[in-house]
Each structure stands twice: as structure tokens, then as C-alpha cells.
Amino acid sequence: MRTVKTFGGELKPPLDENLLEHHGVKGMHWGVRKHDYPGASARTNHRAHADAKEFARAKMFYGEGAGTRRKLIKAKVEANKRRDPTYAAAFDHHLARQDMSKHADKARSERGRKNAAATTKKTGGAIARRLTGEMGTTAAFVALAAAGVAYSRTPQGQRMMQTTMSKANSYMANRRNQRTVSKLFKDAGIKNFKL
Q1: What is the pLDDT of the chain when averaged over all its residues?
Q2: Exposure of 68 in the CB half-sphere (CA atoms within 13 A)
Q3: Spatial separation of the C-alpha atoms in residues 107 and 58, rounded to whole Å
Q4: Which long-range contacts (CB under 8 A, 24 or more apart) does 47-50 make?
Q5: Residue 12 parent element (H or E)
């Protein structure tokens, strides 16, 4: 009997070529996953599982945009059910196995993220509109600032900056205007700002 050297350097006897061992579940079929719906193709199972997950998540989602999200996934599922009868059975199979408490937790955290993002966007937009004289949103303010930096490096930009600075100085000489600017910075969360 011949021995085989392994990567670790130890010697092991070779496998018996006449021996076939299988360590699986009784009744298991090769390539069939336990959670898949029998009778549907792998592609249909995958699509039905993904749609069932989104359907359950949309059902638990609430707040702004929840109704639209539910309508969209419902329309997608209905269209797939009409097109493929095995999809309908696979979808129902996967939907019955969804953990709704897990989806409720995910929906709460997603709602929190969306609310925080919306608040930040609104606050940024309000500050940008104040700074730009009600001109536009945060994107317009950023684009204007980038263009201003590029323009300020030209001779015409230098002259315009001198004119703007003199106007800003005369604007800030007024005590009422100083209070307005101080309040703007205070509302934005910038503390200890002195004029």
C-alpha cells in the first residue's frame, strides 16, 4: 500500500477507489437547495425569492414613498405571475417563509436613514438659499462656488472680488445686517461666531 504526502508533510494512505461516501441529508438531490420551490427553475426561484423579500420589506415600510414602493412591487409581481405560472407558486412559497419581524426592523432603520437624509438636505438647501439670496439649492450653491473660485483667478475676477468685498464691508457696517448674519450662523449650528 502506497502513502500520499499532504501539504502539512504528514503521510496518509490513499483513498480506496472502490469506496463511495456521501455525507448529506437523506433524500437530498444534487443541486437542489432546501429552500427552493420544487418544480421551478433556478432562475425563476431566484427571481421569486428576491421579489418576495422586496414585497415583504415594502409591506413593512412606512412614511413618505411607502405607497409608491408597494404599488411598484405589486405590479411587478402581478406581471410575473401572469407571464409564468411556476413563478406564482414559487413566489407564494418564498413569501410564506419571510421573517416579517426582521423586515420590520430593517424598515425602521431605513426610514430613520431616509428621514435624516431629508432633514440634512432641507437644512443645506435653506442655508444655501440664504447665502445665495434665495437663488437656488445646495447643488446650485456648490456649482456657483466652484465657478467663483475658477473665475477669481482671472484679472476680471480679481476686480470683481474687490468690488464685492467693498460692498460686503458696507453691508456689514449696518448693525441690523450684522444681527441677520449672526442669526444665520447660529441657526446653522456655528457657535461662538463674532462680528
Answers
A1: 77
A2: 3
A3: 8
A4: 47/80, 47/87, 48/80, 48/87, 48/90, 48/91, 48/93, 48/94, 49/90, 49/94
A5: strand 11-12
How do residues 49-59 score in pLDDT, each as one tens digit? 999 999 999 98
- pLDDT score for 182: 74
Helical residues (DSSP H) of the chain, grouped into ranges: 42-60, 66-83, 85-96, 100-131, 138-152, 155-173, 175-187
The answer to whether 87 and 44 are in contact (CB under 8 A) is yes
Q: What is the pLDDT of residue 144?
A: 66
- Which residues have a Cβ under 8 Å from the Cβ of 14 and sit 6 or more positions away? 1, 2, 3, 4
The angle that helices 42-60 and 100-131 make with each other, rounded to 10 degrees, is 60
Q: Which residue has the cell 502513502?
A: 3
